[in-house]
Amino acid sequence: MQDTPQNPSSPSQPTPATWPDAHASDPRALGWMQGSPPPADKTIRFDDGSFLRFPQLRWSLSHLREFVPTTAIARAPGAPSELPLALRDDLDALHFTSMHGETLSWREALLRTYYDGILVLHRGRVVQEDYFGEGAAERGHALFSVTKSFVGTLAAVDVQQGRLDPQQPVAELLPELRHSAYGSASVRQVMDMLIGLDYSEDYADPQAGIWDFSRAGGLLPRPEGYAGPRSYGEFLATLRQQGEHGTAFAYKTVNTQVLGWLLERLHGQRLADQISQQLWQPLGTAHDAAISQDPTGAAFGGGGMSATVRDLARFGEMMRLRGHFNGRQVVPEAVVADIEAGGQRSHFAQAEGYRATLPGWSYRSMWWVSHNTHGAYMARGVHGQCIYIDPAAEMVIVRTGSHPVASGVSNDPITLPAFAAVAEALMRG
Amino acid sequence: MQDTPQNPSSPSQPTPATWPDAHASDPRALGWMQGSPPPADKTIRFDDGSFLRFPQLRWSLSHLREFVPTTAIARAPGAPSELPLALRDDLDALHFTSMHGETLSWREALLRTYYDGILVLHRGRVVQEDYFGEGAAERGHALFSVTKSFVGTLAAVDVQQGRLDPQQPVAELLPELRHSAYGSASVRQVMDMLIGLDYSEDYADPQAGIWDFSRAGGLLPRPEGYAGPRSYGEFLATLRQQGEHGTAFAYKTVNTQVLGWLLERLHGQRLADQISQQLWQPLGTAHDAAISQDPTGAAFGGGGMSATVRDLARFGEMMRLRGHFNGRQVVPEAVVADIEAGGQRSHFAQAEGYRATLPGWSYRSMWWVSHNTHGAYMARGVHGQCIYIDPAAEMVIVRTGSHPVASGVSNDPITLPAFAAVAEALMRG
Lengths: 429, 429
Known about the structure:
2 copies of one chain form a homodimer. Helices cover 28% and strands 14% of the residues of chain A. With 429 residues, chain A is an alpha+beta fold. Chain A has a domain at 16-79 and 107-146 and 271-428: 3-Layer(aba) Sandwich (Beta-lactamase), CATH 3.40.710.10. In chain A, helix 3 (106-112) runs antiparallel to helix 14 (412-428) and helix 4 crosses helix 9 (253-267). Chain A starts with 26 loop residues before the first helix and ends with a helix. The interface between A and B is large, with 46 and 46 residues.
């Protein structure tokens, strides 16, 4: 559900050494969910948890709404915004060196990161668009924590327009959290993940909070006799503080869940409708997006969206153009400028897991900011989802994926040099 | 999930005398699902079954995908087909006489049938479009058995194009059903609901087959220790014959479930993708539709679709124009002509429940055919869903609704004279 530097394996998953490669795990070649009905050993289900296991997730991340209830994030009813094609066939052969010193082609990088969809925009034109396995142009893909950047952008708009005071204590808007860790946290601290929290997202630990959070929200099956929290809100109220707020970046999905809840309270409007009206409709998307929800109807703002690669490219291009897209100012320019400027790098440096792969980065309003010479920044979700915006190269890359390892950090040694190489190639013309 | 002449009340529902009217049951006025989270007594849930109870269903039929997993029926990515406006404000005051001899206005008819959405097309132009409660232009509404007409149309296309032999025994394509009632049935008998079946859809009977069917498919919560069939397919294989096939119309949702299954086997393609590629994309719809599915991924072809009123109008207009819409022949003209011509009225007359409200009608390829002087025919779903095509009046009416009584027969005494009155008014100009 998030991007974590800790051991990213889910319980009872094989070790990385045994992962089959992209072709060997191609869900079509493996026959997952083929036939009516599929054979029992090729059926992927919610109730046995197989939908989030590798290699099954190579199929299910392109079909997540078939496993859990979702709310529609409606597109506008008219014609979609333009995404003109200027396809090039030279990118696949482009070579670069990974952080591990390995020389790879862009095509190899895509396969090594288990991509399901890739779209590269240069100056607003599609220079590459390609799908693998169950990835398809018209099919929404699970975005996991890329969702957070939508929620963070909405909150940043509210802050910029004066509807939301970033210094306000969260508990003033959400009194339900008064006795939780969030009782002493500000809105800005939540937006930038600067919350001291007794809560773990270590996927290797079956006792970690992330599993309890998922069961509370109905995103994982609950055991018989389950007596834990029965909604995201109930779970959030149980969280206890550990350490100070405001001093260190600590990436935890629950923070975004709080922020989405806060936006619903602020606007008196469901999160799906806020995303639809403020972003999805003005962007001129081609398909409705989706967001999963808990059994009380609360959206999973921390990581529940699914959308098509093309529609994500529209969102990324709007950000690259500092909010102006489809003939209108979708998001105020000041909001994008604030995200581009990033958060405090000293806060980010406190988090241990990113030193090797994201040195000098920061986190702002639920976006990951590189502070590299191109001013690149990203939305990132587990299993390889990302929107990468490179203002200097006038480039946006959207990649969906179904990498066996959840954490983005595990594929960053290939992903980040590969994206930089594509940027350089596009700048050369 | 279907349209039945028997007692349509779900178990433990109040009697019709106590139904609040449209305004008194307006889900917005009642505060259903408002607030984050909504108050416990205003929360509608899947796991307690409240999502299908009245008045909660006035909210949930506009949000069905929030309660059960669904597959997307993808639209084409480009601009939607034209639905030009030619709005008139004189229809609401139009008066007609119901089958009970009551004089009502069209506006009263809409409210008395608990409409959520209404769209009237005349010569391809929108003369009326209006929503109530949770109904909204961009929001898909549960269609229930209107779904059947999509499945029936696809099967009729396959028959017309020679891919499907209507005389072929069903069990040749679906050997899993060899020992069921369908072992001795032909494809055509299934398409026209001429199957003798030991199976009841009496909503008042908690032991009726329709509930077992729904639990097997995961559309109703299963009790702890549930040991029944765990998919639609498993349930269908348990059905036993009662009486002859081919002699009498007997409306049962399971027949369409068999037909949808058969289409998946025939094409080696999921039903959602067949509907998308053969109908939804060529029609130039504006939104993805949805179809619910069982825990093995099998689509609920008997009644699982949700779609917007406008997109349904596109489907209806395509049928009115004998298959030609959006600049192409979406469905062969011969298929529409065969549906317009209807089934055997003597078969239909064998079914007792329709004699008062649908005298002289027939059923063909999952469409209800009036044989009236206008040649009108309908797709019908419980709680008031319908697409009404009146070729003589060059009119299509789409209505979505959340009537407290499931059966369409209960609202036909108002609905059918009202539709006829609108047709007459439009023909007068």
